[in-house]
Amino acid sequence: MTFYGGSVLAITFYGGIFSVLPAYIADLFGQKHAGAIHGKALTAWASSAVAGPMGLAYLRSYSYDNAMQDLLQTVEAHDALALNRSFGVSISDEEAIQKLVDAKTLTIEKLMELAPVGTVDPTPFLYDTTCYMAAALMSVAAISNLAIRPLNLRKELIQDRK
Questions:
Q1: Rounded to a whole number, what is the distance in angstroms from the first to the last CA of the chain?
Q2: Alpha carbons 138 and 132: distance in angstroms, whole number
Q3: Can you give the pTM of this predicted structure?
Q4: Which tens digit of pLDDT belongs to each residue from 54-68?
């Protein structure tokens, strides 16, 4: 229930922030520069909408690959022939293993069946690096927003008259 409420609030805030952004920019930087700054803010917003998910998907893929390598090493240490019996591939044949992983024939779930009892399933931890990076980026954004200071409009007006 908390997740649903948070999602509704986030969507509501997104629309609200989007609608008041031009006025906020004008208050901080003055009417003269508001158009150019708003255009750059929208460009950055659109760029982050493309680059952000791609970067986070890369981090998730990186975590998955590391988990697969760790499980392969665990399975090899426990029973060196288990992979050969189950999938017909040697642990040293990295190319064949990569083909099985790409075809989704060799998965974390299937390796967990071959792993020794007590091996921790890495699936719940696949998004850890992704979430940590997202939190770090949000922290940088929050700190950057706190560092914004309004212009001295009197000084700007005096400079414009010269």
A1: 59
A2: 10
A3: 0.71
A4: 998 999 999 999 999
